[in-house]
Design brief:
The protein has 117 residues and is α+β, with helices and mostly antiparallel strands. It has a single domain, classed as 2-Layer Sandwich (Nucleotidyltransferase, domain 5). Helices cover 40% and strands 21% of the residues. The chain is built from 3 helices and 4 strands. It has a 4-stranded mixed sheet with strand order 3-2-1-4.
């Protein structure tokens, strides 16, 4: 069983590595709950969220969809909004989650839609 301290260490380790390497890009951060997924692009220099998308928005409440397909739709919305604001270079901060399942689907869809990371 994973305790909270090891999760905090993993998050800290990942964020520090990413911030050292990527100084001129925006950060794409992901939060995944049991039912929903949230993604946002953050400017760390100004501490502002530039673009966000989530599965809680009105578009997703219409019908029952698999969670992996919801991740796909959230990624498409986020990519469209980011490209409208002329954001194309980002780095992917997966946080405490492994690059697997819904997180992987979200990242691959964003790459297909034109975001570089």
């Amino acid at each position: 069983m994973i305790n909270k301290l090891s999760i905090k260490r993993r998050v800290f380790r990942i964020k520090n590595k990413l911030k050292k390497v990527n100084k001129d890009r925006y950060r794409l951060t992901v939060f995944r709950s049991a039912k929903n997924i949230f993604a946002q692009i953050i400017d760390d220099k100004n501490n502002k969220t530039l673009v966000s998308a989530s599965s809680v928005e009105k578009d997703f409440k219409k019908n029952e969809i698999k969670k992996s397909n919801i991740s796909n739709l959230v990624a498409e919305n986020l990519a469209k909004r980011a490209l409208d604001k002329k954001i194309s270079k980002i780095y992917f901060d997966r946080g405490k989650y492994k690059y697997h399942g819904r997180i992987k689907v979200l990242a691959e869809t964003l790459r297909k839609k034109g975001l570089l990371f």
